[in-house]
Amino acid sequence: MPTRADGLPPERPRFTLRVTLSTEGARMTDRRSIPPLSPFEAEIGFTRALRVGDHILVSGTTAAGGADGSVPSEAGAQADLCFDEIVGHIVALGGRREDVVRVRMFVTDMTDADAVSASFSRAMKPALPTATLVGVSALYRPEWKVEIEAEAWVKAEAARE
Q1: Residue at 149 is within a domain
Q2: Are 76 and 116 in contact (CB under 8 A)?
Q3: Which of 23, 24, 152, 160 is the most buried (most CB within 10 A)?
Q4: Would you say residue 5 lies in a domain?
Q5: Structural domain includes residue 102
Q6: Distance CA 150, CA 130 (A)
Q7: Contact by Cβ (8 Å): 149, 50
Q8: Can you give the pLDDT of all 161 residues of the chain as single tens digits?
Q9: How far, CA to CA in Å, does 111 sit from each of 74, 75, 145, 158?
Q10: Distance, CA of 137 to CA of 117 (rounded, Å)
């Protein structure tokens, strides 16, 4: 394949992206979080989901188990529960599924990547966020096969209409 002087293939478009970030209206005092869902949050000192200005961050979410503590054995089913919980946190903080801009997925077995990716597609396709899926050696509990983090940028109400 021929290349240009800059080493890029001829069919690859070049573009310049200019981004201006503003922290106006997003002071660290403008923080909201969801109520703690486990004793680990207070003990360790973190919040599961936090909104600062127009930015919502959701901590690593697992299929921690229902009232009886059970966890589905399939990674895809675990991911479905994770995405349901993540979207619930984002909605609780004033966002929508479509506001999600980044998702990070961690799996303990890469043979589960297709099932977790399918769950991602079902849950996040309307948002078209950036996404990363990586294999890790272990999560906190051995029955957890997937952990997922997400970030959302919430549009102003006037811009949504």
Answers
A1: yes
A2: yes
A3: 152
A4: no
A5: yes
A6: 10
A7: no
A8: 455 565 555 554 444 445 444 555 555 558 999 888 888 788 888 899 999 999 999 999 999 866 677 899 999 999 999 999 999 999 999 999 999 999 999 999 999 999 999 999 999 999 999 999 999 999 999 999 999 999 999 975 544 44
A9: 11, 10, 11, 44
A10: 19
